[in-house]
Structures are given as structure tokens and as C-alpha cells.
Amino acid sequence: MSQDFIVGDQIESPSERISIQASESLKSILLNTPIAFYTCDAEGHINFFNKAAEDLWGRTPVIGKELWCGSWKILYPDNTPMPLEICPMALTLQLGERFEGVEVKIQRPDLSYRTARVYPKPIFDEKNQVVGAHNTLIDISAEREVESTQALLANIIKYSDDAIMSKDLTGIITSCNEAATTMFGYLPEEIIGKSIKTLIPKNRHKEEDKILEQISRGEQVRHYETERIRKDGRLIAVSLTVSPIKNKNGVIIGASKIARDVSELVSARKKLKQYTKELESLNTYKDEFMSIASHELKTPLTSAKAYIQLLAKTVEHSHKGFELTQRSVHSITRLENLIDNLLDISKIQAGKLHCKMETVVFNDVLKNCQESIQPLSTKHRLFINNETDVSLTGDKLRLEQVINNLLSNAIKYSPNADRVDLTVKCELNNLIVSVQDYGIGVPHDKIEHLIERYYRVETTYMRFPGLGIGLHITTEILKQHHGKLLIESKEGEGSTFTFIIPIK
Q: CA-CA distance, 220 to 223, in Å (whole number)?
């Protein structure tokens, strides 16, 4: 009986059937292999490709129509376009020669790139004629990316201004860059293979032992300032950052060290510290001088004021004499206030402006302020609207100073007005005191600067005397009372200064 097998209308022998089965098995293997593979006929038309090739190309070529390669675009490794007619597969078909490991760059339709090594080989018939070719493509994109990254890092290390070195876990130096050679004075062949302690002063060797312990635990040492020693014996101040180096399995095998020369920075710090110390000393001398000067100036002023007040009584029936003595008293009072303010500024700068807190009857404060301010101007009348009779915790003299500052400013900056209003009220356990004048006012963009030390509005400092420290002192006193100062003003119409302090 015949051993032939019938397939359709054809009769195949057992050997032919085995050949077909082997071919189908090989095709299945090629289709599912993770390595890109495709074949072309003698004219170069693609007649087979697997899934890995399709993934590499980023597209699906049309069987029987596309020539030599399924890539959207093919390039040389330097990104120069490669004509398809001279691509490795085309040359293989034209020359009947195989090419081993030619590197090409593939651009996909999404504009991404892949790098591959290709291995095209011709297929011959029994007459040794080229009937096609097959090509294996090995994706080496990851390899090239790693190489590119390593090259970039190598350039960064090479041209860094910071000294960069590596060492193993015993402290033996394994590499160094050019900046390290410049910083420490050793050529690579002189220092590589030696202990890192070669660069460390003997009295600091224990530092390195601690650093290696930290590195062995996977810890990083950041911005550690210390000293290192050059080949010529000179000490230099450095800032170190030391990080663990791990192998591909994550095992710590050494450390990288970045050293920055901070000698100039350390020197600048020392100078700054010395300057700061000298300034603090000068500031102390200044405060002492201000205190002594204020005391020495006030002593004769107090005596002069008392004598003039006595003189005023002797000439009270002489209108001209009384007016002159009153002006003298007024000028001395202004000078006293100026001296007090300068002394207060000195105390504020030294953090020594303290308030003596006690129970204060606020109406007594108002009465004293009225008695001291009203004589300063015969033109202005002080109108007090007091809706409360309250006692609070505060410094009586300092609160009088606050109100006197605000009232004297109101009089000074309203030369064409004839009144100043002072309003007192209580709201929500707060004492609210407002002083309103009808004077020149303040430009809106200048209001926030009024409480700054020595600030004067440009358009007024030539017309009105003063140093621009009254409101600064006022705000500091209010801070001591947990209070605040609010300012409202309209240029040409006047200003209202309001302070709020809690009633305790």
C-alpha cells in the first residue's frame, strides 16, 4: 500500500510532509522570538516579519510592497540619513554577501529613535542564485543610552571645578578628576592606589573613619566643612559631600567624594565675625555715650528751664517779658524731648526699651497730656471727647509719651488749622485713642513709611523741624503694650492717628 499522503489535489510523500511541518514549526518560532527578524525576496520586497521587528520599527510594513527595510526612516549612527538602496539588507541582496553587526539608527513614525545592530544574510537556491535574504536586528538602544549617559557624566566629572574622587571601603583612592589634581597637587598616578588619609591632616584621621562607617551604612555626608592637606603641605579649607557607590546588585562597594575649596569663604566669615564684634563694641560705646550725653545735656537744661520759669513769674505783668520767657521754656521743652527721643532710639536698638507696667487711670494720663501740650500752641485748641473712665495695665509715662507725640505732631503739621481733636473710647476690651488734625496730610504712598526710623516726607522736612523718630518710638512703646498704630490721611485735608491697646 502506498505511503503517500493526499493534501488537497496534491499527493505528498512522508518526507515532504515532514519538511512542511518543520517549516511551519520554524515560522512559529520566528514569529514569537523576542529578537527582531524579517525576510525579503530577491527583489527586496518584505515577505515576512515577526512581532519583535514590528515593535522595533514602531509600525507595520505592507507585505510585498515595501523594499529592504520596514523602518520609517533609517540613519547612520551619527544621525546622517541613510538611503534605503544602500542599507545593509539592500547591499546583501545586490552583492550576495552577508554583513555582521552593522550599526544603524531607526526613526519611528512617532519621532522616537532606536539603535540596532543588523545581521543580513543572503538565501541561495540549489543553483547558488540569490532568491532572498533574512535579517536579524538586535536592539542596543539601552546599551547606547547607558554609554551616552556615562560619557556625559564622565565629561561633567572631568571638567567640574570641584575635586571629585572615588575610593573603596578601605579608603583607597580609585580615581580622581583634573580639579582634584589642581586642588591637592598630586598627579593621578601619584595618588591613585594610596589611602585617602594621605590628604588628611593627622589630627583629623578619625574623621575619615567615621565617614567610612556612615558610607558603609548607606548614609550620605553632605557639606561637611573640614581641612585637607596638599602635596606641598599647605592646609586648605574644604566642604565635602561623600556618597555611597553601589554595584548593579545594590551592594555598597565604595564612595564618591566631592571637595570644594572654601578657603576664601572661611576667611570672609572670620573677617565678618571680627567686623561684627567690632560693630557690637562700637554700638555699646555709642549707647553708653548717648546715655551719658543725654544725662549731661538734660542736667543744665533742667536748671535753665527752672530759672526761666522763675523769671517768668517776676515778669508776668510785663507782656513782652512774659512772652519771651514762655518762648524760652517752649524751646527748652522741645530740646528736652529731642534728647529723650534720641535716648529712646538708642534703647530700642539695644533692645532695652522696657515699660514699667502698673495699673493706670487713663483719665490721669489725658489730664497730664493736656496740661503739657496745650501751652505749646496759643493758636490750636485741644478738644477731648472722652466716652470712658477706664483703668488699664501699662506704663503711665510711656503712654503719656505716645499721646504727646501724636498731639505735638498734629499741632506741628497743621499750621493753618486752629484745632486738634482727641477721641477716647472702649470697644471689645480694647482702648481706642484717636488724634485728628486738619493739616497738610500725607500722600497715600508715603503712609506706610511714617513709622520707619528717621523717615521724613520729602515735601515737608524743610518746612517742619524734627528727626523723624517720634512715630517709630510710638510704635515700639505700643508693641510693649501689645497694641498697634493705625494711620489714615488725605493730602491737603489732614490725618488721623489711632492706637489700640488691650485693657487688662
A: 10
